[in-house]
Amino acid sequence: MIVIVDYGVGNLFSLCSSFACIGKQAIVSGDPDVIRSADRIILPGVGAFEDAAKKLNNSGLADVLKEQALAGKPIMGICLGMQLLFDQSYEYGCHQGLGLISGDVVPMEGSIPADLKIPHIGWNELHIQGEKHPIFRYIQQGDHVYFVHSFYGARCDQSVIATAEYGKELTAAVAQKNVCGCQFHPEKSGEVGLAILRGFCDWEV
Amino acid sequence: MITKRIIPCLDVKNGRVVKGVNFQGLSDVSSPVELGRYYSQNGADELVFYDITASAEGRGLFTDILKQVASTVFIPLTVGGGINTLEDFDRVLKCGADKVSVNSGAIRNPTLVEQAAKRYGDQCVVLSVDVKRVDGVFRVFAKGGRENTGMEALSWIKQCVDSGAGEVVVNSIDTDGVKGGFDLEMLEQVCNLVNVPVIASGGAGCIQDFVTLFQTLPKVDAGLAASIFHFGEVSIADLKQELKANNITVRL
Questions:
Q1: Most A CBs within 10 Å, among B1, B2, B7, B40, to test the A interface
Q2: What is the value of ipTM here, to two decimals?
Q3: Nearest-by-CA chain A residue for B90
Q4: Which residue among B5, B130, B140, B206 is least packed, with the fewest CB closer than 10 Å?
């Protein structure tokens, strides 16, 4: 069973529908015991980093996630959920993340050409890096996925498993041991996105 | 490189997809759930679900049909029609919308865009504006294009983007339903005005109209249309092949 972590942030309807579409049972829960009983964990999220990190900490779910990561359970962060896996974010200040992926989340503004619009919004090509990570086993190099973000993962070279070109190669997906994250939205990336979720479900850590 | 987006619009009335010429003479086309799934699987980059009569009738959007559409569509879904309050945003987002389009609601309540952007983020708030030339000036029309607000369109768009609208759908009433091509003159002025994605709407009649749009105005991010897709006059697959052949970046 997959548990989509509910901590009061983001739209979980599409994620649930996506897992239903690929024939996987997923439930939404913010209950630590339910999260502990999951085979796999999805950490979703949209909005501001600081607010989301506070909610994770105040609800005690940050500790549950760290404990489950340490126990070796497959975890996937999506969009802001991916950014929360990092050590810290420089989105309006400096805020601590979960520290499950080494690196920082930094603004695109100032690090990509000024004529490019921010947020980076739309469909972009995935450039799979190195040996194809198991979550990408059902997709091809250059497949398109859907992005919406203004901040991105940096100083995480060891963990980058895919990038997308937007003025520079931006971190599109990361993985470190049993923890992975997608900056894009697999639940909004059509057949390719569903195939990535399927890859996550079939990932033997 | 980010791709140009092709967006079919599902104008919904009484649970059915409709499309009229110049917003009148509506005719029933098909089921929004079936059409949504079809487009999601056949190359559409995004869907717009618009309850076109909600605003005129002053009622909320049909959330049950929206939920059905959202549960079968795995591409971004923008929802509009009858969005007047933050509660309306909340309701449609919970039904599976990714972005919410505001039109008449923003005109009635000028703080709506700012409030929604603060709560849900700029990327969630899409300003939809119906524009028509009146005595040579671009004017904003409300209530599905039925009512001239007297407001000047470019300053209205700028004001909303400054308040936090993350995208702008520019629908030209003058070209809508005429199938003579997009309103390039109007779109160019909007592109030069704002630095958020601009979505062209109104006037596409054939594949060449999209090629012309993206070649003439490279700053336009997306092309939106309804009837030409719904009636099968243009297939999205053919359209994208032709765009690619013209060196326009698309997702195939």
A1: B2
A2: 0.90
A3: A11
A4: B206
